[in-house]
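Standup notes
- DV: blocked on the single-chain target, sequence here:
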Amino acid sequence: MATITSRTLPLRDWGNRNGNSATFRPQWHRTAPKTVARADNWDDQSAGWAIWTAHLTQRREPCPLTALLPSKGPSLLWGMRADSFPTASHGSLATQEMLTALDRSTRNKAWKTAIGPADLAHRWSSEALHRRSSSFGLECLAWCRALPALSGLLPAGAWWHLFEILLSAAENSASPTDSNVELLSRQWLAAELPLTMAYLFPEISQTRRLAREGARGVFADIEPAITADGMPSAQTMAHVLPLLATWARARAIARCLKKSNWDDAAETRYAAFARQVVRLLRRDGTAMLSPARSEPADRELFAAVFVGADRADRAMARQAIPGQSGPSGVAVKALPAPAANNESAGVTVLRPNWSRSRERLAVTRHGNDLRTELACGRDVLWSGVWTCEIRRNGVPLVPEPDAEWDEVCWTSTEDADYLELELALPNNIRVQRQMVLAREDRFLFLADAILGDESASLEYRSVLPLSSEITFDAATESREGYLVGRKARALVFPLALPEWRAEPCPGGLEAVDGGLALRRATTGSRMYAPLFLDLDPQRLVRPATWRQLTVAETRRTLPADLAVGYRVQVRNKQWLIYRSLGERGNRTVLGQNLVSEFLVARFNTTGVIEPLVEIE
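- DV (later): unblocked, structure below
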């Protein structure tokens, strides 16, 4: 995260930092009270300082930030977690404790920390030129917000010293292209801090000039971290809620400033990012693929995010985010699409609708690292790296360091969301990974296709990283099993394995340390390793069964390394799955004539198949 060093804050003679002497001389704007502007001294005991402190405590405008951004605690902590901060700093006072103490000052509440405001200000400001803290930008914002109230608690010299440090940080924040400063920290320092200073101190010309730069800084040079459609990149996923929080605060402030440059384009970009973040939320409001759990302050965050949003976005938030209000009765077609994919960002969300209780699958890829998370209701079934280990003739196939998961296909229809990715391995072998989330049929289909040119002994093992609260309850006589959290959430079928354990096979589906492992072994040039997860809670009671099907071409049965087919039945629902592993042909499976490469279809009540996903 961010660092501010002596290269970004100019070295100046700060004068007497603890005493009453102030070396900084403000340039008063024409709107400043004449009694303040005409004073020639703002040290302690001077008329100018007395007038200035009285003005700060008595003025009606600007509206206090605690009223502009209502929250029970520090709004600077929106989206943040306790482990985001250093465990201790500034003597015995931790960063989070310091932010809370400064927030109490803004609310005119008593100072309750062991370190008094003057001592804390001295310790913090004396370190400001040489900080290496990840939370420096957030601390600057906390001091800035508290400055009006602190004018009655700090000596004049200490107050103006703090003011100039913050002004220097806002004016000289790291360049947006500085790779040593992360996006979140750049936003605090180059966008939110300038806007906050311009808002809180309109009487001073130096801060007024920051308004335009602050609004421009919100979206300055944020790609590829945040793409044009608002999708965060795979590397940015850990920071989506703090980023949304800083933009929500910056937006609220910028819209109150006449010359902030927060225009329609900025509002559109902001709304797009907010929409993508909502897609990436769990039921409790935390971000998918993060270890965090819900915090009460996050409800205040989302309330602020959607102030002034259009009707469709507010209706979306009402359905998807806990504790949110918004218009009801908005037609489903008027809402944004619940699923989304951005190839350049490396992020995909497979989601049937905006309901908080429905299942959703998030997928991120960066290089050869591929992470997924499946959430169902209140349970996160798994979250983390979905591994894939392949051996050819006993030799592990390890991707090259620069190998990447490339997108092969993405489609989202009224029936299902489908994503297919590909990774190159040595020996001209490719892994094609398929994910299908069916909307009304409520199942998730996952499969790895290992595609090679020459026959060999192939061994496959993949692990889905089950959450600590999830267990795999394997059936006794057959090879399926339940994923169980607060209750049974999914019935899992290893389609390429025989259904009954009495029939031996080189493979298995089993709970292991770190997740749910699927193993397969075969001889051939290609292999298919599919899993079918029934997610409908009304169907999670047997009977259920599956079968491997015969695939024929010109009345010749094809081997399993050329094409495979499966039939799945759960209670009265049945599905057909077909995958060609070699060149496509005119083939027959279960009485169906197919020329597709991939097909997932349901059987209707008359026995006719209705394709959910078909790739030709």
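- Follow-up: The two ends are 46 Å apart (CA to CA).
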